[in-house]
TrEMBL record:
UniProt gene name: LOC113791394
Protein name, per record: Ubiquitin carboxyl-terminal hydrolase
EC number: 3.4.19.12
Family designation: Belongs to the peptidase C19 family.
InterPro entries in the record: Papain-like_cys_pep_sf (IPR038765), Peptidase_C19_UCH (IPR001394), Ub_carboxyl-term_hydrolase (IPR050185), USP (IPR028889), USP_CS (IPR018200), Znf_RING/FYVE/PHD (IPR013083), Znf_UBP (IPR001607)
Known catalytic reactions: Thiol-dependent hydrolysis of ester, thioester, amide, peptide and isopeptide bonds formed by the C-terminal Gly of ubiquitin (a 76-residue protein attached to proteins as an intracellular targeting signal)
GO MF entries: cysteine-type deubiquitinase activity; zinc ion binding
Enzyme class, first EC level, given as a word: hydrolase
Organism per entry: Dermatophagoides pteronyssinus
């Protein structure tokens, strides 16, 4: 969002900023928390954001200081606009401030890493003490350090790593297999495996994903920098890249199918014959696209593989434009995706029977369900050359998402080969903020029936009600009964 209030700040009066010196102990001036610290541009005071104790908001209300900068992600936030802004680079003093904070962040990571970890250990320990009588929350989750507007990458990584089928594969993947993959200088698989092992060790409350992200930045430079990014775009890149790398295994050194074992399933991940990979076996599904000529009735069918489904959101009415009174369900979005659609004049079908382009209808069916169903809610829309966000709340089930109404049923054996059609929620990614080109990403994920909220380096335990109240952007559902790539359970 472009903020009109930035031009009101002609200079920054904080003496530490003017002298190019900022103390590296980024802690809230009120509660001394080092989590999610924001600096007031007007006076230089440090306060925590809404994910800690919300003292930055209190400072705004008391002093009417509206512009803050996140000390770690370096994003600029305007309380008057109630959103992150994207036009701050037009002003020299904001660029200077960002440069200073970036330098101090680097020093902070190098010199007081252990101190920050101890502080975050205390935060998580408080939550563990509250649940000390509960046996299901013994898992100690680790946060990911924000390396400068990397919240979208952190949210995706935490979601994937908390999908146990995904993590088990990388944990058991022999290092020799990684060595057999080409392009070792840009090997995402190898660095992702290291990161997952660190996350699952549980010895640290915060780890740095710098090695993994550096490899990704080499391949896709646009994911680096201070401009906001899209978590869905990054998720698609990660899955595509992993599939490409895993397809290049040296099969002479790895003859047998690699299988991963968990308490509940045994699933073939690698097939040396058709180059299926962990990505296709876990996330891969098949759509059937049916197009019918409205003149002669000729039908054509095409099968399209998918790793995720992008679902339209019903347009909100005036009374629920803020999402508070939304009655929309996730199944409504799925029904809209699979409903019969009559295509317009701009999408004429080249009918082989009529020998010319004709009006047509289109319908999607799910021919094969994936083991992990990834659903992307299309919250960002183009309208009159502008993108806007649909910030309505979509109600989604934690348990028992039934996909059977959306499976192709008119072909013998299709439903049986699909396996179980019931899914349980494993993780979600949430976009916070009203703007399209700005905002912040966090994620929720469950481990042994205990939900965690991942907000970069901060990890907190939460309940299902908190998860269900969130405005999901991407949802990950796990199938009750897994099937292999050839359809066997």
């Amino acid at each position: 969002m472009e903020c009109p209030h930035l031009k009101q700040i002609t200079k920054i009066n904080n003496p530490f900023i003017k002298e190019g010196l900022i103390l590296t102990n980024f802690e809230c001036s009120v509660c001394r928390s080092k989590r999610n610290t924001w600096m007031c541009i007007h006076c230089g005071i440090l306060n925590c954001d809404r994910y800690a104790n919300d003292h930055a908001n209190c400072h705004f209300k008391h002093k009417n200081h509206i512009i803050f900068i996140d000390c770690h992600s370096l994003s600029i936030y305007c309380y008057a606009c109630d959103d992150f802004v994207i036009n701050e680079n037009c002003y020299k003093h904001f660029r200077k401030l960002r440069h200073i904070l970036h330098r101090e962040n680097s020093q902070l990571i190098r010199h007081i890493h252990n101190k920050v970890i101890d502080d975050d250990d205390n935060q998580i320990q408080k939550h563990k003490n509250k649940r000390k009588n509960s046996q299901k929350c013994q898992f100690k989750a680790s946060g990911l350090r924000n390396l400068g507007n990397t919240c979208f990458m952190n949210a995706v990584l935490q979601s994937l790593c908390n999908i146990q089928l995904f993590s088990y594969y990388f944990k058991e993947l022999p290092n020799s297999v990684c060595q057999s993959i080409e392009n070792q200088d840009t090997l995402v698989t190898k660095e992702l495996r290291k990161t997952i092992l660190l996350l699952w060790e549980g010895g640290k409350s915060v780890i740095s994903p710098e090695s993994l992200f550096t490899v990704i930045w080499k391949i896709v430079p646009r994911f680096r920098g201070y401009q906001p990014q899209d978590a869905h775009e990054f998720l698609r890149y990660m899955l595509d890249r992993l599939h490409t790398e895993l397809s290049s295994f040296n099969h002479n050194q790895y003859q047998q199918q690699h299988k991963i074992y968990s308490p509940n399933h045994n699933i073939s991940i690698l097939s040396t014959n058709n180059k299926s990979t962990m990505v296709t076996s876990i996330f891969g599904g098949i759509l059937q696209n049916e197009v019918r000529c409205l003149i002669c009735g000729n039908e054509s069918r095409k099968h399209d593989p998918f790793f995720d489904l992008s679902l339209d959101i019903p347009q909100p009415s005036t009374q629920d434009s803020n999402g508070s009174n939304s009655n929309y369900l996730l199944t409504d979005c799925l029904s809209k995706f699979t409903e019969l659609e009559e295509l317009g004049e701009t999408e004429l079908y080249n009918c082989p029977t009529c020998k010319k382009k004709q009006r047509s209808s289109k319908k999607f069916w799910i021919r094969r369900l994936p083991n992990v169903l990834c659903l992307h809610l299309k919250r960002f829309k183009w309208s009159d050359c502008f993108r806007s966000k649909l910030d309505v709340h979509i109600r989604f089930p934690i348990k028992d998402l039934d996909m059977s109404p959306f499976i192709l049923s008119n072909i013998h054996g299709t439903r049986n080969s699909c396996g179980s059609s019931l899914y349980d929620l494993a993780a979600i990614i949430v976009h916070h903020g009203n703007g399209v080109g700005s905002g912040h990403y966090t994620s929720y994920a469950t481990h042994h029936d205990c939900w965690h909220h991942f907000n970069d380096s901060s990890v907190t335990i939460c309940n299902e009600d908190t998860v269900m109240k969130s405005k999901a952007y991407i949802l990950f559902y796990i199938r009750r009964q897994f099937v292999s790539i050839n359809g066997s359970t």
